[in-house]
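Risk register update: the risk of archive-format incompatibility is retired. Evidence:
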Amino acid sequence: MVAAALWFVLFSPFTAPYVPFWTGMVVADIVLITLTVLIDGSWTRRIVFSWKNLLLGVIIAAVLWGVFFVGDKLSQLMFSFARPQVDSIYGMKDESDLWRIGISLFLLIGPVEEIFWRGFVQKNLSDFYSDNVGFILTLLFYTAIHIPSGNFMLIMAAMVAGGFWGLIYRIWPQSFTALVVSHALWDLAAFVLFPI
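Archived output:
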């Protein structure tokens, strides 16, 4: 519920014009990481930095970037609104310094989102229900919080990325650290270094 409320403020046409997006994202992620530590900090024991996890994180990020690259080209062929909606997402970069955005994405936003959605939400839902139900519910929640944006391409991007990371976590929960690394790298690549 907290994530839904925060994302509503960030993306809703009723509130978004009054909230500096990148500052709002940083604040939202600080709230989410604080909640995960206070409610269930067990994810901290599952973060294991190693060369293997770093390399796997790079590979996962690169594969997802490729999926988005192909998806962008296909969506432009299918939908006339696709590119303008994608451009509006990238237009959010104009409100802040690109270096500040890159640092925020890499060091805070990407890692915190992965820790929250896979390390906290999906893990706890999987423990409570089952691995499959945990994966599906997390994917539905992650996709749904982007609906207030009214941006079909952003909603579909959330569904694809959430499904990609969630499925890897569902199949191989030991890859949690690599997923955190991949989310940080993918955010930095897709939004700053190699925009699609």
